[in-house]
Design goal:
Length: 450
């Protein structure tokens, strides 16, 4: 038990390790405590199966350590994270990569984050890229691969290799791609059963229209989770919104996240997706746009929600940087969790939401809006004094009402995030919230440093 708590057994744990070579230091430390621990550690293959390797800081003897750890890992699945910069003049990274590729049939998690050094000449970059391509071409079938993540500036020539890796991984469930690394080899995809088990897809920095064409492929019909981040929008994209004749239904998609820094880009993205997909089983939707002052995207968001047929299936909705959210509330009969974050200092977004949700006080009677709401999370940039009073009144009207809605509990948790110094504990609204908290309502304050 101690061994599994101390040593990283997943690549995410290894990434938090500060050792510049690899994450094996905890395993070595465990083996050095005493003879008994040494024997147990060396007889625990999973302790030696996680490799977080920075090519920029490999020592000359690194290959011997890597080979020893691969031997100790026996037949355990391997988690491999390769990052740092490549130099054709340093042979050690080539030896390390060659050793790892020999064991690629055991890869369970492969994260490739190798970067091109900005100080490298074009000639040196080309030489490093050619060596990398040759080594990566030696990867054959990947029967154990569960998760594949590529975020690299070594783009030229890598995309076809990535496509082949994807298609040679019959059990691949998660794929993360950045930039132009999207494998668009349709012929290769058609010849292979690859991606048939894919459940999670995350892409960033890819042109919107290219991605839309790519997503129409049959390989992605069984997706359960989709993350779109920083899709590139071109001026002509707003004029070529796809027609709904090419509509694709993702029956199993349960989680969708869309992050666009620019509000205008978010609007175009939502319009594209509204015309091309339906997600009748979608449960969690996360929409985030980051500009403090951006265009109102409520209309394309409303169209997206209704066109994708997800309004009745949604149980969790996270919105950041979206104004006039109250206009959307009539759409969600089964929503349990609503999270809204302000990214601007003006407007009545949160106040309007609170007013619309108050039972008997909203425009539509309150109770008809989000009737199954259990958790409301609000992140305010600069709340006015009336916000706390309104929040307390709304919470009181929805909590301890002595009834349930279709068997679902009423409001049970309220979370409020504001900057330090913006909560006045002497106000009537704050005291009212504290009274509800003392009576049993789960009230949570998160204070941001200013």
């Amino acid at each position: 038990m101690i061994f599994t708590l101390v040593a990283p057994l997943e690549i995410e744990d290894a990434e938090n390790n500060t050792n510049p070579f690899n994450p094996l230091l905890p395993s070595v430390s465990l083996a050095s405590v005493c003879r008994g621990w040494h024997d147990v550690a060396y007889d625990s293959p999973q302790l030696w199966s996680v490799f977080d390797i920075n090519f920029s800081s490999l020592s000359p003897g690194a290959i011997h350590v890597i080979d020893s750890c691969l031997t100790r890992s026996k037949n355990s699945p391997l988690s491999v994270h390769l990052h740092g910069e490549l130099s054709v003049n340093r042979v050690i990274w080539q030896d390390v990569l060659t050793s790892l590729i020999r064991q690629s049939s055991r890869w369970k998690y492969f994260f490739f984050e190798v970067e091109r050094s900005m100080s490298t000449s074009i000639k040196e970059y080309s030489a490093s890229r050619n060596v990398l391509q040759k080594l990566m071409a030696g990867i054959e079938d990947l029967p154990a691969l569960d998760s594949l993540r590529f975020e690299s500036t070594f783009i030229d020539g890598i995309s076809p290799l990535l496509a082949r890796m994807s298609c040679r991984s019959p059990h691949l469930r998660s794929l993360t791609l950045h930039g132009e690394l999207l494998p668009l080899d349709d012929e290769l995809l058609e010849q292979s059963a690859g991606l048939s088990s894919l459940e999670s897809l995350s892409v960033s920095g890819i042109p919107l229209h290219t991605f839309v064409d790519f997503l129409r492929g049959d390989a992605f019909r069984d997706l359960k989770s989709l993350v779109l981040q920083g899709l590139e929008i071109y001026e002509e994209d707003s004029d070529i919104i796809p027609d709904r004749q090419s509509l694709v239904t993702f029956q199993h998609l349960s989680s969708l996240s869309i992050y666009q820094t620019d509000g205008a880009d978010m609007g175009v993205t939502l319009e594209f997706l509204a015309q091309m997909l339906q997600a009748p089983s979608l449960q969690t939707l996360d929409i985030k746009t980051g500009l403090i002052f951006g265009p109102v995207i409520i209309e394309p968001l409303h169209t997206f929600l209704t066109s994708t047929k997800c309004t009745t299936s949604l149980t969790t909705l996270h919105l950041e940087g979206v104004r006039d959210v109250a206009l959307l509330l009539p759409l969600f009969p089964n929503l349990r969790t609503l999270s809204v974050s302000e990214t601007h200092y003006s407007g009545r977004t949160l106040g309007d939401i609170i007013g619309a949700l108050r039972l008997g006080g909203g425009r539509d009677g309150g109770h008809d809006l989000v009737p199954k709401l259990q958790h409301l999370e609000l992140k305010a940039m600069r709340p006015d004094l009336s916000l706390f009073s309104s929040l307390a009144e709304m919470a009181k009207s929805r909590w301890n009402s002595g009834s349930t809605v279709d068997g679902a509990a009423c409001l049970s948790k309220l979370s409020l995030e504001v900057s330090e110094g913006l909560i006045d504990r002497d106000t009537e609204g704050y005291r009212a919230l504290e009274e509800l908290k003392a009576a049993g309502l789960d009230v949570e304050y998160n204070l941001r440093k200013r």
